[in-house]
Amino acid sequence: MSRFTSPVGEGLISVDRWTDSSQAYFLTHLHSDHTQGLSAHWSRGPLFCSPITARFLLSKFKGFDASLIRDLEVGSTHTFSLISPLNGGDVEVRVTPIDANHCPGSVMYLFQGELGCVLYTGDFRWELTSERAKLSKSTLLDALNGEKVDILYLDNTYCNPCFSFPSRKDAAQQVVDIIQKHPHHEVVIGIDSLGKEHLLLHISESLKTKIWVWPERLEILDLLGLDEIFTTDTSQTRIRAVPRYSITQNNLESLNTMYPTIAIMPTGLPWSQNSPEKGAYTVRYTAHSSYSELEEFMKIIRPSIVIVMKGSHGFKVRKKEGKGKVLASVRRSRVNIVRKERRGVKIEECDEICTSDFEVQIGSDWSS
DNA sequence: GCGATCAGCT
DNA sequence: CACAGCTGATCGC
Predict the structure, then answer these.
(1) From the alpha carbon of A29, which nucleotide's C1' atom is closest?
(2) How many Å apart are A324 CA and C12 C1'?
(3) pTM for the predicted model, two decimal places
(4) Å between A361 CA and C4 C1'?
(5) Exposure pattern of A312-340 as b/e (b: 16+ CB <10 Å)?
(6) A39 touches strand B (CB under 7 A)
(7) How far in angstroms lies nucleotide B4's C1' from the CA of residue A37?
């Protein structure tokens, strides 16, 4: 444990982390909690991401130096070289970006080479009933080719047995059903600046209608070639996708003084409650893995060590005194878990990756 | 005045 | 509570 976490020399690789010095920077997707510290003036070094994320990045940060972007074909293995701060020699690294099925452009990164075998999931949904996730699984297993994952950085947002979600396809149909039961209502659907495009597409196709979005959102949809089904003209549709934070009880009541309106919240968050009598519907549509999906994932990966990236309502997280450090303790599993502090990760070079430092403790909960 | 960071909120 | 944000205050340039 201590050998990995104690920094030796300069950092080599940073993932979703932009505040300290590394030789290569990786971005999993363009949600804002993964880009804190990134700006149009980025100059620290090469930034690796998927081609779609590169497109979003240049749109979000106008004036970004495009020569720093290394867009990597998803599903392929790429090789690059870093300089060892220990001996000045080359450190060869293989990286495989794998579709994370979280939002457009989102990827996980599998790093292999002298650094060891490190899998960084970023935010991901391991929804194996979908063809896309099945493809991600085979890409991952092919790239691993039997190699053991030394360190897994895991999105554990919903890693608690109380979270079970329908497939996004089924959840999308639930939204369509709600809309069809209100044929004379206006409909507002809460979304963020990126994500849930497949939900909106499903609604548009099922109901043969365009969907209103705000102008900045249409720019993002244009980058995906989806401009045909969206509009910024309210007269063309009764269905509007609006910023999630704009859907409040007060706003819904105000809308209803003008026209009968229902609100639909696609979310996995447990405190968003369904209140049909108030015209407020919650549908469990989420871009994060459910507990059982995480279980499926862990059965395949069986890493030596897991570092979880979230954790407030996932694993039972226990605050440890001093320095704001947080360690996770897991009651239902004996997997060795450490919670990463703050955002992203900096991967340092070690004298060697010594897997015996990370005793394998895969518990029966993962393996049964 | 501008950009970066943070507190507070949903 | 906070998926992934938004707004507003403050600080340094």
Answers:
(1) C4
(2) 26
(3) 0.86
(4) 33
(5) ebbbebeeeeeeeebebebeebebbbbbb
(6) yes
(7) 9
- Cα separation, A56 vs A68, in Å, equals 15
Separation between Cα atoms, residue A99 and residue A124, nearest integer Å:
8
CA separation, residue A338 to residues A118, A146, A308 (Å): 15, 24, 6
Distance CA A90, CA A317 (A): 39
Distance, angstroms, CA A33 to C1' C10?
A: 21
- Report the mean per-residue pLDDT for chain A: 84
Asked if strand C contacts A85 at the CB level, meaning under 7 A, the answer is no
Start-to-end C-alpha separation, chain A: 27
**Residue A214 to residues A193, A221, A307: CA-CA distances in angstroms?**
10, 11, 38
**What is the predicted pLDDT for the residue at A343?**
61
Q: By the 8 A CB rule, do A8 and A351 touch?
A: yes
Strand B nucleotides where any atom sits below 7 Å of a protein CB: 3-5, 10
Tokens coding A80: 């690059």
Pairing of strands A11-15, A345-348: antiparallel
**Cα dist from A167 to A40, A122, A164, A283, whole Å:** 37, 20, 10, 11
Residues 247-306/A with CB within 7 Å of nucleic chain B are: 248
Distances in Å between the Cα of A88 and the Cα atoms of A13, A32, A47, A231, A308 are 16, 35, 22, 55, 32
SS3 (DSSP) at A263? strand
- Nucleic strand B under 7 Å from the C-beta of A19: yes
- The C-alpha atoms of residue A288 and residue A103 are separated, in whole angstroms, by 10
* A84, two tokens: 């060892």
DSSP collapsed to 3 states, A322-348? CCCCEEECCCCCCCCEEECCCCCEEEE
**Cα angle A318, A324, A328; round to 5:** 25
State the nearest residue by CA to the C1' of B9. Answer: A245
CB-count burial class (<10 Å; 0-12, 13-18, 19+) for A153: buried
**pLDDT over 70 (residue A325):** no
Q: What are the tens digits of pLDDT across the range A213-254?
A: 999 999 999 999 998 999 999 999 999 999 999 999 999 999
